[in-house]
Amino acid sequence: xxxxxxxxxxxxxxxIIMIDILLGGDNAVVIAxxxxxxxxxxxxxxxxxxxxxxxxxxVILIFxxxxxxxxxxxxxxxAILLLWIGVKLLAPEHDDAHGNIAGSDKLWGAxxxxxVADLVMSVxxxxxxxxxxxxxxxxxxxxxxxxxxxxxxxxxxxxxxLVIKLMDRFPMIITAGGMLLGWIAGTMAVSDxxxxxxxxxxxxxxxxxxxxxxxAAGVLGALLVLVIGKWVAARHARNKHEEPAVTTx
Length: 249
Description:
This protein has ten helices and no strands. The chain is mainly α. Helix 3 runs parallel beside helix 5.
């Protein structure tokens, strides 16, 4: 129980909940599409079982991600992926990824659709949550992940429409979320075993594992996402305005 008393635990929980809200907004859409053909009496069951299966699968994936992040250089790769995810959050491509999700009139068919679709769409979520859990200490990582996901379930399932409206009204929420991913990427990169372990990989330059270095790397990652994301968004807007008009002869 002592882990609930540490500020690092609650900071990481807050990060996981925000990541799930920002990157898990599509989950509610997937659930709605997969369960739309179910009889009304089974629709709630489909939503609950599909969500439970998707969350359980995500916990398993995050467990493996946390294990893999102990391998040298993989945190650096994960940090690069998180920076890319953060930039995409600030400058999204407007592709409809839900067109191929078919509904089912059978309860377990709908549940299977939810779980499979969530598996395909959860790569960014898993990497980000694994990175956020790194800051809570090795012994607290999996309890933290499970606690954070459980807290975020009702937010995703029942509060997703409210969250989406808030994001539309206050775009700063999305900007803050992208910068949070950049912060996690920066702190993850400097804690990579290849950079932190002075007894191994001696040919790799080492980074002092101090709070100043960690926070500086987090700030740098957040600023990188902000600057690159705004630049990409501006470029998308400029290209859209410069598209030649179609003329008819």
